[in-house]
Amino acid sequence: MSKGLSLWFAASSILLLMVTAIMLTHSLWLALLFCILSIGNIGWGFVIKAKRNRSGANQH
After folding, report:
1. Which residues neighbour 41 within 8 Å (Cβ) at sequence distance 6 or greater?
2. Percent of the chain having pLDDT more than 90?
3. How far apart are CA 50 and CA 14, in angstroms?
4. Interatomic CA distance for residues 37 and 44, integer angstroms
5. For residue 58, what pLDDT is reported?
6. Strands (DSSP E) along the chain, which ranges?
7. Cα 32–6–17 angle (5° rounding)?
8. Rounded to a whole number, what is the distance in angstroms from the first to the last CA of the chain?
9. CA-wise closest residue to 34 among 48, 17, 49, 46
10. Whether residue 60 has pLDDT greater than 60
11. What is the pLDDT at residue 4?
12. Which distant-in-sequence residues (6+ apart) come within 8 Å of 1 by Cβ?
């Protein structure tokens, strides 16, 4: 995975987790929504990394 894409997933995950923490004081439902989005974003980053590593391994 490129450095830019890694930085994007890291920064967006941190931002989503920060919003989740802030939403805990406002609404439990919004906090749960952002928690699910955070987990999904982190998971999607791993999926992208695995796909790129697999396609790169096939080329060598």
Report:
1. 9, 12, 13, 16
2. 82
3. 21
4. 10
5. 67
6. none
7. 20
8. 16
9. 17
10. no
11. 92
12. 48, 49, 52, 53
- Residue 27 to residue 41: CA distance in whole angstroms: 21
Q: Is the pLDDT of residue 48 over 60?
A: yes
38-45: which pairs have CB atoms within 8 A and are 24 or more residues apart? 38/13, 41/9, 41/12, 41/13, 41/16, 42/9, 42/13, 44/9, 45/6, 45/9, 45/13
More confident residue, 1 or 40: 40
CB 38 within 8 A of CB 16: yes
**Please, are residues 45 and 53 in contact by the beta-carbon 8 Å criterion?**
no
So what's the pLDDT on residue 2?
86
DSSP one-letter code for 26: T
Query: Looking up tokens 């490129």, which residue turns up?
Result: 2
